Amino acid sequence: MRTAYLHWLEDECFFSLCSRQHLLCANHSSAETLSYLFGSETTSFSHDFPRSLELLNEDAKLTWGSSEEIIRKHTISPIFFPFQSPEHVGALEQAMNRPTLGSFKYRLGLVTGRFGGEHPLKACTQCMTADRALHGVAYWHLSHQFPGVSICPLHNCLLMESTENRQWSRRFQWVLPDEAALITIGSRTPSASTLKTLQAMSIAVVALGKWGSSCRFEPSMVVQVYKAAINLQGISPHAREATAERFAEYCSILQPYPPFSALPCDAYCAIRFMTQMTRKPRSYCHPLKHLTLIMFLFGRFDLFVGSYQQLAAQQEISVSRNAKLISQIQPNECPLPKLELEACIPKPKKLIKELKDKIIKSLMVGTSKKEICSRFELSISTVNRVLRFNPLVEKEFNKIIYLRKQEQQRNRWDTSVSLNPNLSTNDIKKLNPNVYAWLYRNDRSWLSNRTSNLPSGRRGNHVCMDWDSRDEKLRTLIKLTLIEHPTKLRKSDLYLMVPSLFSSLEKRSHYPKTRKFLSEMRQSFT
C-alpha cells in the first residue's frame, strides 16, 4: 500500500512538512524517512538548508513542487538572495540540489558575518495552540525560522528556541514543535521599547525573505541609498559621531537576542560598521548587516525599498536622456568648413640629421619631452615621432623615466611611514593615495614588502587576540551560571545557558582554564 503525501499548511517550511510525513509513515528512524524521500545514497540533512532536493522522489515532487519552488517558497534561503548576484543565487540553488553544500555558507556571509551559521528551530506557543485547534498538529512556520526573527509576526510575542537538532546535540531528528523541548532566549520580559525594536526587525526580516523570492538589489545603488540617508543626519564630523553613537545605542537593544550579539557596541565600532557598508560593495555579506543599518536609517523596510526604487528610476531617466541626446547628434548635421578642416591638420616637420641626433641624445639621458620641446623649439608630436621610429631609444627612455618615477614614489612612501610609524597601511594610503596607486600598479612587490612590516590597523584580528582574557571571561560566565542554577546540570543545559560555550570548546588549543574548571565540576553534570 502506497503512503499518501501530505499537503502544505499555511506558512510551513520544508523541514516541517518532511517531519509530518515522517510521523505519517510511522518510521522507526530518521534515516529511514531520509532514504524514503531522497534515496538510499542520502545520509545527511539539515533543517535550515535542505540538500539533495534534486533526489527527492517523483511522487513527492508531484505533490510538493519542484526543487526550485521548495527553495524559494519553503526555506529560509530567499532572505540571502536580494543582496547576492544572479550568478551566486544560481550557484546556491544548485548547491541545495546536491548532497553536499560545499562553500555554500561562506557565500552567504555566514562564516565571516559574525551572525553565526546555526539557525535553531523556533516556534510561537500561541501559534502552536491555534495550529492544533485548526489542523490537529503543531508545525514549524517558515516566517519564524528566518535568522533575526525573534517576535511572532502574528501574535507579537517572543519566539522560543528548540533544543532539538542543535549543533551540540550531535544527532538529527524529524521533529515537530513541542513545549517540553522549547526554551526562551534573552529576557523573558523585555521593555516596551525593546519589544517594539525586535518586532520591527522581525517584520523587516520576513519582508526581505518574501522580496528575495523574486527580486534583488544592485549593490552599488544600495551603497548610494545608505550614503544619502546618512548624509541627511549631518555631514560634519560632530554630526557623524552623533549618528554613530545613536547607531551603537540602537544595536545595544538587539545585542541580547541571537544572532545580533556581534553588533557594534560603541561609537568607534559603529563608525567602522557604517564605513564598511558604504564603501565599494563586497560579496558574501550577511543580510542582517544590511537590515540592521536599514532599520536604523529608515525605520521600516518598505521605506528603504521606496528610496531604492526612486534612485533606480532617476538613474534610468538620466541614462535614457543621455542616450536620447547622443542619438540626436548626427555626424553630418554640422560639417566643418573645408578650410577649417585643413587648418587643423598639422604639417610634418622635416628634421635634419644633426637636430635628430641631438634629440636622441637628450632622450637617452632621460631628458623630459617638455624640456626637449622647449630647448629645440619642437612640438611634442615631433618628439613622439622620433621615439616611434627608434624603438631602442624609446625603450631606454621609458626605462629611465620609470626608474626615476619609481625612486621618487618610493621615497615619498618611506617618508610618510617614517613620519607616521604607528599608522597602518590603509592610513598611510589615505595620506598618499596617488603614491599608493602608482606603487600598487607598477611596483607591487616592493610595496607588499614594505606594508608587511606596518601595523595591521584591524580590530578583532585573531592573531592579536587576548585569548587569556577571553578564557577568564568564559570561565567567570560559567561560574555565574552555576551560582544562579545550583542544581545539577546536564552539559546540554549548560550549552543552552552559555550559547558561546560549545563553539569555544571546539578550539582545542584555547580556553585551558575553562576546560580545567569544567573538568573539576564534572560531578555537577549527569
How would you describe this protein?
The chain is mostly helical and 526 residues long. Among the domains are: 219-313, no CATH class; 366-451, no CATH class; 466-524, no CATH class. It is 57% helix and 2% strand. It is built from 26 helices and 3 strands. The chain has helices at 14-25, 30-38, 58-64, 67-74, 86-97, 104-107, 125-135, 142-145, 192-211, 219-232, 237-254, 267-278, 287-298, 301-328, 338-344, 353-364, 369-376, 380-388, 391-419, 425-431, 433-442, 444-451, 467-484, 491-497, 501-505, 512-520; strands at residues 122-123, 160-162, 182-184. A 3-stranded antiparallel beta sheet has the order 1-2-3. Helix 21 (433-442) packs across helix 22. The radius of gyration is 32 Å and the shape is elongated. The relative contact order is 0.06.
Considering the chains and any ligands shown, give keywords for the structure:
mainly alpha; 526 residues; 26 helices; 3 strands
Low-confidence stretches: 329-348
Q: What's the SSE pattern?
A: HHHHHHEHHEEHHHHHHHHHHHHHHHHHH
As an assembly, this protein is single chain
Number of helices: 26
Strand line-up across the major sheet? 1-2-3
Secondary structural class? mainly alpha
Q: Main sheet?
A: 3 strands, antiparallel
Terminal Cα separation, in Å? 45 Å
Helix content: 55-70%
Mean pLDDT: 83
Radius of gyration: 32 Å
Beta-strand share of residues: under 5%
Shape: elongated
Short description:
With 526 residues, the chain is mostly helical. It is 57% helix and 2% strand. Among the domains are: 95 residues, no CATH class; 86 residues, no CATH class; 59 residues, no CATH class.
